[in-house]
Amino acid sequence: MTNSQPIRLDHFMAAANAAYYGQKNPFADFITAPEISQMFGELIAAWVIAVIHAMPGDSAITLVEAGPGQGTLMADMLRVIRQAAPDIYQNCSVIFVETSERLRQIQKQAIAYHTDISVRWYASIDSIPSQPMILVANEFLDALPIRQFVKVSSGEWAEHYVYQGQLFQKQVADLPKAPIFQRPVKDGDIVEVCEAGQDIIKNVAQRIYKDGGAALFIDYGYASPVWGDTLQAIAGGKKVSPFIDPGEADLTAHVDFLALKEIVIATGARAYGIQTQGEFLKQLGLLVRAKMLAARATEIEQKQIAEAVYRLIDPSEMGDLFKVMAIMHPDLPIPPAFELNKEIK
Ligand code: SAH
């Protein structure tokens, strides 16, 4: 991918990530929570089961996963749902939202064991048919393209474009509507806006409000408004320049959860969180689950379990940086692991 003209940062990031996820193996470059331990998917399955049991009626439910990677989270969830809630298992179907054809094949393999479950793929959330759904998305929002704005002098803003492997600034006339522009910003500050993520959250919240269900978004990012450049590129486990070799590295940015939460509330759906991953997993019983697994494990496996717990919840690892937000239909009760973290109205 080369650009002969300056290209706006979000357009550059969208094209670079489409090439990256289409051709590369992302899991050679980074490791995500479901790949660290099966406990992650098992606990999320427990959350999903509790939410479905609180829903009215026992009609069919669609489990949707956005950006499923290797399909590990869904595979771990389906295993638990089949064992612990056969009533739900018999009535559920799966939708994967995935753009990469290569990853779709891997996802198909990951849940091939569940021959009795219907699985469909869509390229975007807005193309899914209307129906009650439980949506989960881990490390999906961070891969969506961002725009970056720089405060240049009083009242004036510039926007970041990419040209010949470098960033440069162009004057902007119209800023997008985003709450972050209402906050005090100094000259030189960078403000990031993820319009793609905001559109997706709005679409999901509107669907949940209209059709019923819930969604759980887990990602790294902020629970309060923050500015600064969070764009990063990882290739081969190392940070590289985001602009030199587009398609060779995974481009991500921190998620502004507060902006997303405000969007959810405006639709009439409920937003819960923003909770840290550490608290979320502990409240779902990670430590108890780890103990149970360790009780029947070898010494080496016990070490691996302890290491996984540390990576998932320690504040110096994923515990604090990763945040969790739930979107719920207003008739549903406060979901598990958010009881201490009531919605802000
Ligand atoms: N959830 C997985 C993978 C995270 S990697 C895990 O936790 O391991 C990001 C995932 O989002 C990949 O599956 C990638 O192909 C997908 N993705 C990235 N941008 C996307 C987009 N615009 N639409 C749909 N899927 C996208």
List the helices and strands and how they pair.
Blueprint: E1 7-8, H1 9-23, H2 33-36, H3 38-54, E2 61-66, H4 72-84, H5 86-90, E3 92-97, H6 101-110, E4 119-122, E5 133-138, E6 147-153, E7 156-163, E8 166-171, E9 190-193, H7 195-211, E10 213-222, E11 232-235, E12 238-240, E13 250-252, E14 255-256, H8 257-267, E15 270-276, H9 277-283, H10 286-295, H11 299-313, E16 322-328
Parallel strand pairs: 2-3, 2-5, 3-4, 5-10, 10-14
Antiparallel strand pairs: 1-7, 6-7, 6-9, 7-8, 10-16, 11-12, 11-13, 15-16
The structure holds S-adenosyl-L-homocysteine (SAH).
Compact overview of the structure:
The protein is built from eleven helices and 16 strands. It is α/β, with parallel strands linked by helices.
Kindly describe this structure:
- Helices cover 36% and strands 25% of the residues.
- α3 (38-54) crosses α4, α7 (195-211) runs parallel beside α8 and α10 (286-295) runs antiparallel to α11.
- It has 345 residues and is α/β, with parallel strands linked by helices.
- It is globular.
- It has helices at 9-23, 33-36, 38-54, 72-84, 86-90, 101-110, 195-211, 257-267, 277-283, 286-295, 299-313, and strands spanning 7-8, 61-66, 92-97, 119-122, 133-138, 147-153, 156-163, 166-171, 190-193, 213-222, 232-235, 238-240, 250-252, 255-256, 270-276, 322-328.
- Strands 2, 3, 4, 5, 10, 14, 15 and 16 form an eight-stranded mixed sheet that branches.
- It contains eleven helices and 16 strands.
- S-adenosyl-L-homocysteine (SAH) is lined by residues 17, 21, 26, 32, 34-35, 67-69, 73, 97-100, 103, 138-140, 143-144.
- S-adenosyl-L-homocysteine is lined by residues 17, 21, 26, 32, 34-35, 67-69, 73, 97-100, 103, 138-140, 143-144.
